[in-house]
Amino acid sequence: MFIPCDRGGGSAAPDFKGFTLLMPAVSVGNVGQLAIDLVISTFDMTKVGYFYTDCLVPMVGNNPYATAEENSTELSINAEVYSLPSKRLVVLQIRSPFIKNKYRPFCETLLSWVKSSECARVVLLSSSHAYQRNDEQLLGTPLRYLLTPDLEKAVGGRMQELNWKEMEKVAAYPGISDTDKVLHIPGGGITKLLFTESCSKGIQMAVLLKFCSEGDNIPDAFVLVNYLNEWLQLIKSEVSTNNNSTDPSSQWKIPSSWRLLFGNGLPPALF
Amino acid sequence: AFLSSFILDSVCWEVVGVVKLWNEWCRTSSTTNVLPTDSFCLFYRLIADPTVLLCQCSCYVAEDQQFQWLEKVFGSMQKKGLQVTILSTCPVADYKTQESTLTLASPFLKALKTKEFQEQVCCPLLEQPNIVRDLPAAVLSYCQVWQIPAVLYQCYTDVIKLDTVTIEAFKPLLSSKVLKSLAKDASESTKVLKKFLTSSETHSNIYI
């Protein structure tokens, strides 16, 4: 459940009415979570609360978006909420895996919070195993989107303009051609459950995902966050004077916690 | 909750410091044990000052039990004026740093504290990108969310079995406000330390 940081003393609880909730799915390569890190770090978003739940493995650490000595000693936990009122954006960051059998309780808690806080829509950043693509999906863009019926009415047209590709449904039984088509997001973690629950509860949700594999997923995170930016226009793309192309990648700020992702320094005795 | 026993590569010294002072008042989280003293998770209370509680948890609390453990323990405690200190250990190989961990002078202490904790910590704070997991993380998360002052002292050690060097790494804590009054004198400590080293079982995290 959502617990605000500042309680008591007359300060009102943060109001998310009409905001867009941006959140990651804990999925292959952790691409959604890395993309969210970029968003929070670039806009220097303020932490407004915690999403305290028994569904995620506990972890703590000091502020992952620290830029100086002064702000590096604030404790962070496994699920926190940040906000940027100027862009009507609220972001939930999830930092640890789900505990077994807790997907559904988490979905329920999350969606009931979305409804009670009156968020306008939810954008879920996710990923799916690249090796599970079928022949058609191997060609072209690795990015896909999904919209719940309620959001389809509102922004379906925009997606057409952007020339985005909707996530294809696949045969329930591969190889047998006359079976029903179902939505299949391997490696997407909570994505499919959250999406289907949102459809049935009438919540406006968009899923943006990328096909990728485990490895160095930083480039995947940049691709996904630029994909998001094409739609939400969080950063205005500046035309680069060097090569006349609009490349917003350089405008995303990498957080300090991305250091040492692949281990420590080497022992000098090795050489 | 059922707690399975697990031998961790971590070390305690706190029992060394306080075993004689304490009246053993314990509560077990396991419903299958007949004798409370057989439990691996014991609570002690100071006779002289019943507001001081010590919890010694010698077993691994699985991730799906941690939340319930917290709710049970903190649910029965008054949160006003509560202060929590957590001692834990961890292999130095898990410590992320620019240099290699082989060149570091282990064991060493690092701390993490909640927003409400205003006192001086006895060692440097844990730098990014290091994190803490398991029950110590669960306790600290709980304290951060519910605005309870709490501090976690994590000792990074390169030794798996119980040893004096790692135990003594916690010594700076004896000068902290909370533990100053609880420490035993040195001769007692060495006697009990020797006793621990002869037993094969290792003890682990302690929560005050």
Automatic annotation (TrEMBL), chain A:
Pfam families assigned to the protein according to its UniProt record, in alphabetical order: PAC2
Location of the protein in the cell: Nucleus
Quaternary state and interactors: Forms a heterodimer with PSMG1. The PSMG1-PSMG2 heterodimer interacts directly with the PSMA5 and PSMA7 proteasome alpha subunits.
Any one GO CC term of the record: nucleus
Keywords from the named record: Chaperone, Nucleus, Phosphoprotein
Signal found in the keyword field: no
Biological source species: Mystacornis crossleyi
Record function comment: Chaperone protein which promotes assembly of the 20S proteasome as part of a heterodimer with PSMG1. The PSMG1-PSMG2 heterodimer binds to the PSMA5 and PSMA7 proteasome subunits, promotes assembly of the proteasome alpha subunits into the heteroheptameric alpha ring and prevents alpha ring dimerization.
Segments passing through the bilayer: none
Protein name: Proteasome assembly chaperone 2
Keyword check for Phosphoprotein: yes
Family note: Belongs to the PSMG2 family.
From TrEMBL, chain B:
GO process annotations (BP): proteasome core complex assembly
UniProt keyword annotations, A-Z: Chaperone
GO-annotated molecular function: proteasome binding
Gene Ontology CC annotation, any one: endoplasmic reticulum
Signal peptide: none
InterPro entries (alphabetical): Proteasome_assmbl_chp_1 (IPR016565)
Domain of life from the UniProt record: Eukaryota
A Pfam entry, by short name: PAC1
Family label: Belongs to the PSMG1 family.
UniProt protein name: Proteasome assembly chaperone 1
Organism: Mystacornis crossleyi
Taxonomic path: Eukaryota, Metazoa, Chordata, Craniata, Vertebrata
